[in-house]
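## retry 2 of 3
previous attempt timed out at serialization; input unchanged, resubmitting
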Amino acid sequence: MRHQDIPLDTVLDIYTRVLRIRRFEEEVGRLFRQGQLPGFVHLYIGEEAVAAGVCAALTVDDTIISTHRGHGHVIAKGGDIKRMMAELFGKATGYCKGKGGSMHIADFDIGMLGAIGIVGGGLPIAVGAGLSAWYTGSDRVSVCFFGDGAANEGSFHESLNLASTLTLPVVFVCENNQYGEFTPAANAMNITDIADRAAGYGIPGVVADGADAFEMYRVATAAVERARGGDGPTLIEAKTHRRGSHAEGEEAFLGGQTYRDEAETAAAQAKDPLRLLHTYVSENNLLPADLLETLDFETTQLVAEAVEAARNSPDPEIESLYEDLWV
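## retry succeeded, writing output
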């Protein structure tokens, strides 16, 4: 981890994004375990540095597409935590009026085109956004977040092929957290680095440390500048870890079985993005201790207020079941 080429205001910005994601996800995990949230939730804990670093390199006009594990991407792009929490509670004040839930949050005003629950489903949409920018002469860049499992889908190859052929302003960010649900990535592909696949499409492929928010920012900035400058797409592979389950509560349907050994789990814990970032900015005197404490307190309060607001929000009306439909 190094900061020398990153302005201090950007250091603070990145730290704030990582912290907000972590505190939000910790609370969501607690609420789910208490049975207060409907549906499934897929937490982003352990991967915060990827979204924070990448989104810090974007403008509000740039667009992103997310996945079933999308809370961190929304927050990193500037999403409203209160509207997010209300959506997770299934309330009418949520981003999707309580009808989308955890895996389908979108906010076009900040360039968040949506979280896609289908593995690999966001890749063609991101390319479509890039094609739109190219066709209209906009300098807008499209970023697609997806996992290692999606890199084995046909949509991955089709999307990279079209984006590279048309030299579209798209940045593909593969969050390789080592598992497609419960299957180790090593059991599903015969390569070590997914980024190597970029060569087949004549575009740059970059491997980055997904626990290092500054490295993610640096790599993303170069890819975004390349795309905005008309030089086409880049494939970034962020080597990362999800600290917890594929989905919260998975133990109930795994029947007590485990698919990760203790050593691997310990290694993931050791590469905690927030702890690494906090230690680095503290030891290098980049951000004063009182500021870090204040940020943590304010963020915790913000999340608590979001929970309270969600609990006090109305449920969707029965009549709204027939609204917002594509027919």
